[in-house]
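Readers outside the structure-tokenisation community will struggle with the description of the input data as it stands. I therefore recommend that a typical entry be quoted early in the introduction. An entry of this sort, consisting of the sequence and the corresponding backbone structure tokens, reads as follows:
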Amino acid sequence: MGFRRMNIGILAIQGDYDAHAQALNRLGVAHSFVRRPEDLANIDGIILPGGESSTHLKVMSEEGLFDALKGFAANGGAFFGTCAGAILLAREVHGPAQASLGLLDVTILRNGYGRQLASDVHMGKTKLRKEPLEMVFIRAPIIESVGQGIEVLAEDAGHPVLVREGRVMAATFHPELTEDTTVHEYFLKQIAQ
């Protein structure tokens, strides 16, 4: 399946979901905004953007999206979460504890009582390419531990910041806030396999 034949859903409850749409536009990939369970029909994968994870959870539960997203995952759906989206995908969330979809075998420190990675822009090494990758952190959560099936694709300050397990990928930074589409392209390649 080529990128141009894909339709990627973007959870559009809150956060900067439009920046993900712009990244997909630069790649010539169709997208649709997901606000209700029926919006999951006919998409090849879904992006869970940043924002406030507890607000995402509240609206997802009210709209029936929480269970619908779990069903999408059970049917082999691909996920990419950034910042708050990474929190939503984690198996375990604390600091404080919070419900999650539990699709990615990582433990995330949600707000860390001030121990989050600082809001900053870093250039870091990644397994996605030889050149350093621009990473925009905004009150980023911290991935404290990863399970055996997790592939760490990038690290920063001694912590994993880009991880993948099967068809589920998460970044604690915001690749959609740069002009670089490397991370989005990698997600699309995982769907195409």
Notes: The CA atoms of residues 4 and 28 lie 6 Å apart. DSSP finds five helices and twelve strands in the chain.
